Amino acid sequence: MRRVAPDDKITCGTTGRSYTFGMSKDFCRRGAEALLSNTGLRPGDRVGLLLPNVPEYSLAVHASLQAGLVVTFANPLYTAHELTRQFQSAKVRCIVTIPQLMETAQAVANNLENYDCTINIGGKAVPDKKILGLESLLIPSQSIQLPEVKPDDLAVLPYSSGTTGVPKGVMLTHRNLVMNISQLMHPGIVKVNETTDDFQETVLTVLPFFHIYGFNMILNYTTLVGTHIVTMPKFTPQDYVECLIKYKPSVLFVVPSLLLFLVTHPEITAQHLSSVTQIFCGAAPMKKGLIDTFLQKINRQDCHISQGYGMTETSPGITLTPYTMPYEKSGSCGRLLPSTTARVVDPATNEDVSGPNQPGELLVKGPQVMKGYLDNQKATDEVIDSDGWLHTGDVVYYDEDEYFYIVDRTKELIKVKGNQVSPTELEYIILEIPGVADAAVVGIPDTFAGELPKAFVVRKPGFENVTPDHVQEFVNPRVAAYKKLAGGVTFVDAIPRNPSGKIMRNELKKIASSS
């Protein structure tokens, strides 16, 4: 496996701050020692990261992992209610955050059992509130032997709704993460120019590191191959355009909505993108027409656009289009990564489809597949069958050359700008409203977001005073911005359900599209 860049090369930078590879390695070692000597944390304890994309993200994660701690990521846009639910589930004993999020972090910490400390990146220590400053991660109070971290030890606990239901902790081991990166580095999959004393590629990304795509496929992978990562804590069109001009990146990591932004923004020209040679797109399906439009805008064919497919439960990579992919395969999500095996089965019979170009549910095996869901064997058994196949819940087909294409999602998740939104989670909140008898949430198409959550609500008799605004005002403060009911609220007489009581979401989508 290729190693990181020379020590004097920059690894990650943003907002005027950056770290070299040498600084990062030193910080992570000393930080790991300090975490075990300056706090009450012990190997196996859980650390919650409540951070936007800042240069210290990588340092905090890798110092924790070297100390044998387990990291769970959280969206910094989450409400205290959402964070408390996740961090209680993960049994978090330490939160790493920034001053701007400290009030929320402390509100959450007050509801966690056996809580040890909060680490304030870029802020001051407040000992009486168990808040430690950044210096606490740099100066160990005593010499300490770091633990031997084993491949099958738990490394991270990202939260995913899986194919259905409320978010669950996904147990990913060190082996899972490393093997998925190794799969990407297999010859013929990704073309990476080696970092030397005289050359270093620059990657521009705004995709969040708290998402498994951002964490393992971007942060970990690009760090290992020695690229300079440029990121932003928050996306704004002006900042993104300025980064294109200033840093002249050769590689972009995007989701379809961001590629659409590059295509449609009037200020972005072919000159802004002249340095870009590779674009990686994930988190949601990308249409071939969008790829064609982008290539027309830059007026050249030497920019390779890779599309991948994966899940939080697979670390996340399952397929990726190799850089040698023929143009006529555009629109494919790629071929299986090395050491990954798959079946495409009829969902009704679980029998393999007859051959190429026949749609069915994708089942996968591989070293990147999760250990299981945290404290939830029932949910684990529903996704990973007795033969070890992970049921993705997605309908795909493959062609004669074993390129895969996504047909539809059998799972119920809504994808808003690449973010997962669980309809069940929103339904639970809506059902808390006095006067609501039943509710269902579906995703409706949106040009820029991909999908938007839309609620269908049944009122109890005599509660005609429950209005769409009332539902919005109840739900929206309780969830992150991308989970808000931006698709609207519609009242219906009944929620359509099949004989087993499951919501018929496709019927609701038809109602939404016809209104």
Question: Superfamily at the CATH H level of the largest domain?
Answer: ANL, N-terminal domain
The structure class reads alpha/beta
Please give the domain count. Answer: 3
Q: Class of the largest domain, according to the CATH hierarchy?
A: Alpha Beta
Averaged pLDDT: 91
- Globally, the shape reads globular
The major beta sheet can be summarized as:
9 strands, mixed
Please estimate the helix content.
25-40%
Number of helical runs? Answer: 13
Under the CATH scheme, which architecture of the largest domain would be assigned? Answer: 3-Layer(aba) Sandwich
Query: What integer value in Å does the Rg equal?
Result: 23 Å
Low-confidence stretches are none
| Alpha-carbon distance between the two ends | 54 Å
Strand content: 25-35%
The count of β-strands is 27
Strand order of the largest sheet: 2-1-12-11-13-14-15-16-17
- The CATH topology of the largest domain turns out to be Rossmann fold
Structure description:
There is one protein chain. Helix 12 links the parallel strand 26 and strand 27. The protein folds into 3 domains: 141 residues, Rossmann fold; 242 residues, Rossmann fold (3-Layer(aba) Sandwich), CATH 3.40.50; 100 residues, GMP Synthetase, Chain A, domain 3, CATH 3.30.300. The strands form 6 sheets. A 9-stranded mixed beta sheet has the order 2-1-12-11-13-14-15-16-17, with helices on both faces. Strands 4-3-5-6-7 form a 5-stranded parallel beta sheet, with helices on both faces. The protein is globular and about 65 Å long. The mean pLDDT is 91. With 515 residues, it is of the alpha/beta class. The longest helix has 17 residues. It starts with 9 loop residues before the first strand and ends with a helix. 26% of the residues lie in helices and 25% in strands.
